[in-house]
Amino acid sequence: VAETSAQPVEEPPSLAAPTDADPDVVVLGAGTIGLSIAWKAASAGMRVTVIDPEPGKGASWAAAGMLAPVGEVHYGEESLLALNMSSARMWPRFTNELERAAGRTIGYRRTGTLVTALDQGDRAWLEQLFEFQRSLGLDVDWLSGRRVREMEPGVTPGVSAGMFAAGDHQVDNRLLVGALLEAATSAGCTILRERATSVELEGGRVKGVRVETGDALSTLSVVLATGCWSADMQGVPREALPPVRPVKGQILRLRSKDPEGFLRRPVRGIVNGAAVYLVPRADGEVVVGSTVEEMGFDTSVTAGAVYALLRDAHRVVPGSRELELSEAIARLRPGSPDNAPVIGAARAEGAEGLVVATGHYRNGILLTPVTAETVCAILTGADPPAEVAPFTPARFQVPSWSR
Ligand SMILES: Cc1cc2nc3c(=O)[nH]c(=O)nc-3n(C[C@H](O)[C@H](O)[C@H](O)COP(=O)(O)OP(=O)(O)OC[C@H]3O[C@@H](n4cnc5c(N)ncnc54)[C@H](O)[C@@H]3O)c2cc1C
């Protein structure tokens, strides 16, 4: 009988209490959410370390960069609209500050957005949306098909009607990620290209973070901003973690040789009930998106999705057919049970010092400024903006009797 000898399990070295040399706050995840928090916190005088194996290459890399509180409004989401509008208003100042800090542009363009309907069914849907938006007091104008074509001659002659959202703008999310990395570093943040494996707690409060190599950092504050992966962090009681899931988005990048002549502003289309958008950048890139799929952590690009996006983009803007197809990728949005963000102190006792900033779903680029301001306020003991109150993790608190 073979004898089995248990291998001694190597205990990780225990964490020392933080000293003045340790970070005041460790931010897990370097998407636009984690990086903007890190930049703002460092600018406020905190010692900040950001941990991410691939900074900026998650959902924030894929996004179209639309800042579209009006176009993204949905029935029953009025309080989310207030938050989205509040963040949209922050964008001009956020852009100025960031561009100054990073010494580079982020492609923030205030052009408004056109929403188009092709057939009568799409038009009926758009009319309903328009009425809803007007009832909320939003700045939208109804357009005839002819007026749509005057504003954007590239839109198909078959367009039946449209709507103009004057306040829905765009930013180049990849320039944004680069600028945030630069600004955070210039403000003194340390960027650690590692995967965080656990948050260490002791006596019900945060004591530090452990990374894949086994190394550990002592700190009393951790911001969990690991996007759709935020529900999986080890070491934290399950009920303190935000209930987020990955929502797959496939998206294309095309390239026009005539940036001025192709489209002047983002164009969204409803084609046989399906939504498609084309977002033109100043350098000729045109972003075409996107799918919304519940596929777990799958990030494969499928022929069917590429086909459907190109087909629908072509129906709305026929000239898109001539553009070079330069990229097709898939990334994962962090979705929460109510598709709204989860921002604030962790939702359960026993995780003091843990702040959550995730669940931004389809609006994480738009919500970057308000999230950074909120988390920075929490970290420095100031009052967070009032519009964030409905979106704290506490709304998902499971009563102890039902666990
Ligand atoms: C196709 C598509 C189009 C979109 N279009 C728009 C749009 O037009 N406008 C808009 O506002 N929003 C848009 N979004 C949504 C937006 O991209 C997201 O809401 C936002 O980027 C989320 O940012 P984040 O920083 O939370 O997540 P991410 O950008 O995903 O960043 C999370 C980071 O955490 C890191 N990480 C994960 N696990 C660990 C770990 N254990 N340790 C350390 N780091 C870890 C990852 O490497 C990643 O870099 C779009 C999303 C997609 C997918």
| Anisotropy-based shape | elongated
N-to-C order of helices and strands? EHEHEHEHEHEEHEEEEEEHEEEHEEEH
**Which ranges are low-confidence, i.e. pLDDT below 50, for 5 or more consecutive residues?**
none
Number of helices: 9
Mean pLDDT: 93
Kindly name the structural category. Answer: alpha/beta
Instruction: Give the DSSP E fraction (strand runs of 2 or more residues).
Output: 15-25%
How does the major sheet shape up?
8 strands, mixed
User: How many strands?
Assistant: 19
Rg for CA atoms: 23 Å
So what's the oligomer here? single chain
Side by side, the strands of the main sheet go 5-6-4-14-15-16-13-17
Question: How much helical structure, as a percent, in the residues?
Answer: 25-40%
Ligand kinds: flavin-adenine dinucleotide
User: What is the rounded distance between the termini?
Assistant: 45 Å
Write the layout of secondary structure elements.
Elements: E1 25-28, H1 32-43, E2 48-51, H2 59-62, E3 66-67, H3 78-102, E4 113-117, H4 120-135, E5 140-144, H5 145-151, E6 161-165, E7 169-170, H6 173-186, E8 190-192, E9 196-202, E10 205-211, E11 216-218, E12 222-224, E13 245-255, H7 259-262, E14 267-271, E15 274-280, E16 285-289, H8 303-316, E17 324-335, E18 342-345, E19 354-358, H9 368-380
Parallel strand pairs: 1-2, 1-12, 2-8, 4-14, 12-19
Antiparallel strand pairs: 3-7, 4-6, 5-6, 9-10, 10-11, 13-16, 13-17, 14-15, 15-16, 18-19
Helix pairs in contact: 1-6, 1-9, 3-6, 3-9
